[in-house]
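Database export, one record per block. Field names are fixed; values are copied verbatim from the stored entry.
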Amino acid sequence: MKKIWSILLAGLLCIGLLAGCAPAEQPETGSVTDVAVTESVQPTVTASTSVSPSSEVTAPPSAGGSAQETGEPPAASASVSAKGKTAESPVTQGGTGDHAENGATSAPAPAKTPETPPPKTITCTISIDCATALSGNPDLVNAVSSGGTILGGKKVTLDPGATVYDALKATGITFSGKSYISSINSLSEGDCGSQSGWMYSVNGDYPGIGCNKYTLSDGDSIKWRYTCDMGADIGA
């Protein structure tokens, strides 16, 4: 009997020794213990990351570049940006290179149109006829004209500001009077009736003023005509 108890006791001791030497069971992944440890440590790690001075801070882009590009704090970047702004070169506008104090480009002055100088001389055409007097006094008319024509379309060169009187004088024909011409080439007023005399037109119009008061223009056409009916027979 004692031998049996000795054997049982020895067996129990062996079992106890084996149980003491066996490795402790490792907790399974995802166990409650790990979850608890992770939850308790995670907030500390997150808080440490948010305040760590060595962590990278992404700043909004500025005129001088971002904090990651320059490697400087945002304040330094802002300072560099402000300094860089003063070093900007002025932009030339309009290609003139002239700038007003406010930065606007002054507009160039409009080019002046050169004034046309007055002509040195003017050229006019002058003619003289007494064809209407042929029926009234043909002998006299034929004596002072050629079939009623005294001067047929002669061009005369005059100074600017010349008058009809100056044009008649430039022909070299003999005449009498100044403001009112009473005789041309010896044919005078009244020779062909009480309503007869000399009248002039410029470009087909009869001005009705003294010939020394009508100023001519370049290219004007002057006609002196003898009338026997106060101008009615020559369209005046």
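Remark 1: The two ends are 183 Å apart (CA to CA).
Remark 2: Residues 2-21 form the longest helix (20 residues).
End of record.
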